[in-house]
């Protein structure tokens, strides 16, 4: 449906184009630019009501001004006041290209519908896990009840601030299904019946993205998360908040909380940590049986571990902004579960951002170590040269 960018009626059937306060009544539009020589997909644009200069984002749609097609969007209430203050979408741009999008007020159901594939929740039926997934990968972490049980010697407990990987090989959500089957005894997420499984051992390791503090030559780690809050679920992103009890690293008293995002089409979760008491941290990848290969690229800001895993192969990785990623190293010890590959990351203004995740060969996403590392290089290029978004004046 074509709508003129000059004078238009205030109300059209189903759609109202938002206008700025000017005589020409131009539609509210944004320009998204890709300055890299690669195609860009599955990168999420965040538009706030402040950026768009709108009081409310209710019933807002985003439409490609050239094709007239609406894109899938997701509204987010970032400050928990009951009102959406952010709208998400994932544009698809060819190399070295730009697209103009119109921001329109929708009065009928005309935007494309999409299922919630980015999903997370607290899992009380399995002690107190917090689990999250998208169409590519799934993860979980462990809560205070699991910690208490472990410290009391109960085998049902888990004492770990590491991140567990659930190896899924289907694009639809599996978290609820796998937990239900396991708790009811009708199945087990430790067995692969075609959707994938959890055969990734974490223990006290860093799993896929747990952190540590290094003082002299010793690594110190926190315990389980203590508080949680789900921020959003939807077709584009799941986001949630975790808080950890203050922990001690050789006299450094460290407080930590984090917001974790996982977006559609991505193999890596984004970790945004607020941390006090230390100026650098180490995000780790467990080395399991130490039969894999650690690789990394400091200039591109990533470290990876590619390993044999069951009847397949698995790549895990940490990626960070080049200005945050200081170095990578391998810590090898005889102590159980404490051998990890680490990304050394700089903390600035009490915050550090990094991405952690995996690619499982059996999911048919990555066949080789080289394909996995190519993905990491491309991912690094994109986070270091984000899509440019501007209002069209």
What does this structure look like?
The structure is a single chain. By secondary structure, this protein is mainly beta. It has 2 domains: 15-113, Golgi alpha-mannosidase II (Immunoglobulin-like), CATH 2.60.40; 119-384, Beta-galactosidase, Chain A, domain 5, CATH 2.70.98. 10% of the residues lie in helices and 42% in strands. Strands 15-16-17-18-25-22-21-20 form an 8-stranded antiparallel beta sheet, covered by helices on one side. Strand 21 and strand 22 (312-319) form a beta hairpin.
Can you summarize this structure?
It is built from 4 helices and 26 strands. The chain is mainly beta.
Layout of strands and helices, then pairs:
Elements (H helix, E strand, L loop, with lengths): L14 E3 L11 E6 L10 E4 H4 L7 E5 L8 E4 L9 E4 L7 E10 L12 E5 L5 E5 L4 E4 L2 H8 L12 E5 L6 H10 L11 E2 L10 E8 L2 E3 L4 E8 L4 E13 L2 E12 L4 E9 L3 E7 L6 E5 L4 E8 L2 E8 L5 E7 L8 E7 L4 E10 L8 H16 L3 E4 L2
Antiparallel strand pairs: 1-7, 2-7, 2-26, 3-6, 4-7, 5-6, 8-9, 9-10, 10-11, 11-12, 13-14, 13-19, 15-16, 16-17, 17-18, 18-25, 19-24, 20-21, 21-22, 22-25, 23-24
Q: Which tags fit this structure?
A:
eight-stranded antiparallel beta sheet; Beta-galactosidase, Chain A, domain 5; globular; Immunoglobulin-like; 10% helix; disordered N terminus; 393 residues; mainly beta; five-stranded antiparallel beta sheet; 2 domains
